C-alpha cells in the first residue's frame, strides 16, 4: 500500500506543477494517475474482500467506498477540460453519485441518531451561507445541479459524524471534511474566481 500512497503523492505534486505551468497535457497525465493511486490504495487496504478498516463482515463498507472512489476517478477526468460545460456537468454528476455511495457506506456502519441530528442543525447556517455565496455566480443551467450537490455532500458529513459517533474511526470524519472543503475550492474556481490559488489548497485536501 505504501507504494500506491507514494504514487498518489508524487502524481499530486506533478499535477500541481502542471496546473501552475498551465500545461494541459501535464494535467491529463498527472490527474488520472493520482486518482488511480487512491483506487489502488483502497484495493490494497482490502476494499474488495471486506478486510478494510471499519468494514462490516460482508464487506459492504469497503465496496461502497471503492464505488465512491471509482465515481470520483471519473469525476476527476470529466473536470479536466476547461471549456466543455456538458463534460463539467458529467463530472458533477459523477461526484454526486460518488458522495451518495459514501453516504450509504457511512450509514452501513450505523449512525448515532443524536450526533446526526445535532450535526444537521449545526450545518444549516453554513450551508445557507455557501448557497448565498454561490448563487449570484451560477449559470441558470447549473443552479439545480450545484444545489443538489451541496445537499448530498452535506448529508455525507452528517452521516460521517453519525458513523464516527457510533463506531469510532475518526479518520472517516477527517476524510469527509477534507473532501467537503476541497469541493469548495472547485466551486470557487469554476464559478467565482478562477486561479491556481484554488488548486494549491483544494487538490492536496482532495487527494
Secondary structure elements and pairings:
Blueprint lengths: L1 H20 L2 H21 L15 H19 L6 H24 L4 H22 L8 H25 L2 H23 L3 H11 L1
Shape: globular
Strands, count: 0
The computed structural class is mainly alpha
Q: Low-confidence spans: pLDDT under 50, at least 5 residues?
A: none
What percent of residues adopt helix (DSSP H or I)?
A: over 70%
Largest sheet: none
SS field, number of helical segments: 8
How far is the N terminus from the C terminus? 15 Å
In round numbers, the mean pLDDT is: 91
Features:
single chain; 207 residues; mainly alpha; globular
Could you describe the 3D structure shown?
By secondary structure, the chain is mainly α. It is 80% helix and 0% strand. The chain is built from eight helices and no strands. It has helices spanning 2-21, 24-44, 60-78, 85-108, 113-134, 143-167, 170-192, 196-206. Helix 3 runs antiparallel to helix 4 (85-108), helix 6 runs antiparallel to helix 7 (170-192) and helix 7 (170-192) runs antiparallel to helix 8 (196-206). The model has no long low-confidence stretch (mean pLDDT 91).
Amino acid at each position: 500500500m505504501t507504494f500506491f500512497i507514494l504514487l498518489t503523492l508524487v502524481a499530486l505534486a506533478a499535477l500541481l506543477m502542471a496546473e501552475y505551468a498551465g500545461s494541459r497535457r501535464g494535467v491529463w497525465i498527472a490527474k488520472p494517475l493520482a486518482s488511480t493511486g487512491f483506487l489502488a490504495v483502497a484495493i490494497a487496504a482490502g476494499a474488495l474482500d471486506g478486510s478494510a478498516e471499519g468494514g462490516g463482515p460482508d464487506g459492504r463498507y469497503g465496496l461502497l467506498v471503492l464505488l465512491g472512489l471509482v465515481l470520483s476517478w471519473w469525476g476527476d477526468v470529466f473536470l479536466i477540460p476547461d471549456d466543455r460545460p456538458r463534460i463539467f456537468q458529467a463530472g458533477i454528476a459523477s461526484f454526486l453519485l460518488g458522495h451518495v455511495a459514501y453516504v450509504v457506506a457511512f450509514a452501513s456502519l450505523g449512525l448515532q441518531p443524536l450526533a446526526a441530528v445535532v450535526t444537521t442543525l449545526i450545518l444549516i447556517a453554513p450551508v445557507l451561507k455557501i448557497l448565498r455565496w454561490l448563487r449570484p455566480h451560477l449559470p441558470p443551467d447549473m443552479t439545480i445541479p450545484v444545489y443538489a450537490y451541496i445537499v448530498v455532500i452535506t448529508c455525507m458529513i452528517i452521516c460521517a459524524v453519525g458513523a464516527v459517533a457510533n463506531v469510532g474511526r475518526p479518520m472517516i470524519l477527517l476524510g469527509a471534511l477534507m473532501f467537503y472543503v476541497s469541493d469548495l475550492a472547485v466551486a470557487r474556481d469554476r464559478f467565482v474566481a478562477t486561479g491556481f490559488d484554488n488548486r494549491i489548497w483544494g487538490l492536496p485536501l482532495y487527494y
